[in-house]
Write a structure and sequence with these properties.
Strand order of the largest sheet: 3-2-1-4-5
Shape: globular
Number of helices: 12
Helix content: 40-55%
Largest sheet: 5 strands, mixed
Radius of gyration: 22 Å
Distance between the termini: 47 Å
Structural class: alpha/beta
Number of strands: 5
């Protein structure tokens, strides 16, 4: 059944990668083909065959998925199976999402006399279209060479990370570069009434950052002191990053950490199922919205 899985997904994942994940040799797979053995998957999968599919999805997503997301991905691949069966097999074989931990992210320095913006976003959790409300935040990652700080810009509509920046310090350039990347990638134009929401950190309140917002015609918005609800999506993003990819990792260099973070952000945008988006990725959610908008306009 392992060879059947590899044959079925050879256009999705490289054969060598599948063989490594499923603990079979590439030569054994090709010998099996050469013998002309029928390795087409059956209509009804046995528990053993289904476990192979589950293990492959689990490995593909590096242990980030629990049974609900694995079940949904299997269904998306055309494998008709009940959620309770997937849950049972994963429990029996000790396959579970990487342990949930709470990470306290404390990168906000609000002890300054810089001007603060009002809370324009004001808990507007539902956004009707892209590029109406962006949220910015900063977190940190430990390496043997010191701290690596990560700034992100998230579109509230799709939870997509549209801009990011990483530096070994928390200078204003960290958040400015993330915003400039978001602006370059999305190119929303000044005619759109775009809100940028952040905490009251000195980087976001700085003259340099406010000048960039003004240059692009973006309205600044800041959370009230002690009120983190409007930044909840960034806190969730950072928690997922640290639980699903960084927990237990030891980075010898800042460059290693940067590469790992970028790989996760790209996977998050393009692949990771998001529960608040009806279990599709941010990129898929935006594509579905665009297609629906075109149909309505037609």
């Amino acid at each position: 059944m392992k060879y059947a899985f590899i044959q079925c997904h050879k256009l999705v994942w490289p054969i060598c990668v599948q063989c490594r994940v499923l603990l079979v040799s590439v030569s054994g797979y090709h010998e099996h083909l050469a013998r002309g053995v029928d390795i087409a998957p059956g209509r009804h999968l046995s528990d053993e065959a289904l476990l192979v599919h589950i293990s492959a999805v689990y490995a593909e997503n590096r242990g980030a998925y629990g049974w609900p997301r694995i079940w949904r991905q299997l269904r998306a691949q055309g494998i008709r199976v009940g959620k309770l069966r997937v849950q049972r097999l994963m429990q029996q074989h000790g396959i579970q999402a990487r342990g949930q931990r709470r990470f306290r992210v404390a990168t906000t320095d609000s002890r300054h006399n810089l001007p603060l913006a009002p809370n324009v976003l004001d808990r507007k959790f539902l956004v009707a279209a892209p590029n109406q409300a962006w949220v910015g935040d900063v977190t940190y990652i430990a390496t043997a060479e010191g701290w690596l700080f990560l700034a992100v810009v998230i579109d509230r509509f799709s939870r997509k990370v549209v801009g990011w920046s990483m530096r070994p310090d928390r200078q204003r350039k960290l958040v400015i570069d993330a915003l400039e990347m978001a602006w370059f990638q999305r190119n929303p134009g000044k005619k759109i009434e775009l809100i940028f929401h952040s905490d009251r950190g000195s980087q976001y309140a700085s003259d340099d950052f406010r000048e960039v917002l003004q240059e692009h015609g973006i309205t600044p918005s800041m959370s009230r002191k002690g009120n983190c609800w409007d930044n909840a999506c960034s806190e969730t993003l950072f928690g997922s990053l640290k639980v699903e990819r960084l927990h237990g990792e030891r980075f010898a260099t800042i460059r290693e950490a940067q590469d790992e973070v970028v790989a996760w952000l790209l996977w998050y945008n393009r692949t990771r199922m998001h529960s608040t988006l009806n279990y599709v990725s941010p990129a898929q959610f935006e594509q579905d919205w665009m297609e629906a908008t075109v149909k309505i306009a037609a």
